[in-house]
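[step 3/7] fold_predict: job queued, chain A
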Amino acid sequence: MSDMINEEGVSRRSVLKGAAAGAAVVAAGGLLGATAGSTAANAANVTASFGSNNSNPPGPKEDAAWVAAAAAAGIDVKLNVVDHNTFQNQINTYLQGTPDDVFDWFAGYRMQFFAKKGLLTPATAVWAKINADFAPGFKAASTGLDGKQYLVPTDWYPWALHYRKSVWKAAGVNPQSIKTFADLVAACKVFKSKGYIPMAMADKGGWEAMGTFDIINMRTNGYQFHVDLMAGRAKWTDPRVQKTFANWKTLIPFQNKSPLNETDQTAGTMVLQKKAAMIMMGSFTSGLYTNKADYNDLALIPFPSINPAYGTDSIDAPIDGVLMSNAAAKNLPAAEALMEFIASTKFSDTITAIAPGLFANKHAKVSSDPFIQSQVKLVNATKHVAQFLDRDTRPDFAYPIVSAAIQKFLTGGDSVAIAKNLQAQWDALPPA
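[step 4/7] structure written:
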């Protein structure tokens, strides 16, 4: 079994250690007695600005809670919340304008890209203090091509087929029977006959459907082709890309109409409201399930095998975190204190009290509820873990190029012409 989850050398087992180590949970008195204590104490009453893309529920509630906890630790946070999709699509402009000291972002290529462009402040001094609280794989995912650390990882989550157990039971479909692509298509036919939208699909933000492309591509052509395609070593005109589109096209009749009008939130709500049978989405979709009975009805299964040579050996399981912009250099003690706070169990436990998830700090609590444990089990059974299309490739290629191409495909565009155009636009990009 391979340990590598992406080209940057993040160990899958190390990432899991960061989550599963919570089984031997360290009591969360945590932050100021552990990692962030010295910095926060020495920087009492400092002020730092934070750019948040956590705009979807329960994001605002989470932000309010951790900002209050930071204030109690002596760090006043000026919070700047921007709509999630707007933040992602305008990140390059944001970083070259007047960015906040610290901001939400991602591991992998997307972090490295901005570090290489000189738009970030290194967090190596922060890592010197927090290193013992993170598994090596998380540090690798936080490291730029220059060997310096830039990211403080916060949480991670797998992408899978999410569904309500009661809906599948009512339709007479056993989720454990979905082993192959043919099984999935057959289940979709059953759901459609029962009056459900078999698969909720969203792509209003231009990123939501990337997860579906990723999983079908990895199931069809394998993990290595995914990373080669994202890095430009494989061409979009390769016949294997057409196999991916052809398999996806098989599912389109089972998706809701007008996916370009739906966000991850509205499409996820179709599943929540029992209008749709499933959605291919990150496990953050659980944030919609604010009623405990509904949440307890939520479950996931891996996307089934398409090519037996690859089975179900790959998934997307992105790592989220925070970075310091160039602006932080003028307010470095406060920005570093905030980064160290966010690295702590005080931060993760504050968030977990609102919405359970999988956090990077190895001492973070891991909820015992079945849905969280199913996420750990899913990744534990997986050989390769990708970061997600818009994080595994150049951001100036992901947006608006790939996002527009997938939207064109979802609205009936010719996949051969789409692939040729994607390759032409890749070839026209300036050197990274």
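[step 5/7] annotate
Confidence is low (pLDDT under 50) at residues 1-43.
The two ends are 32 Å apart (CA to CA).
exit 0
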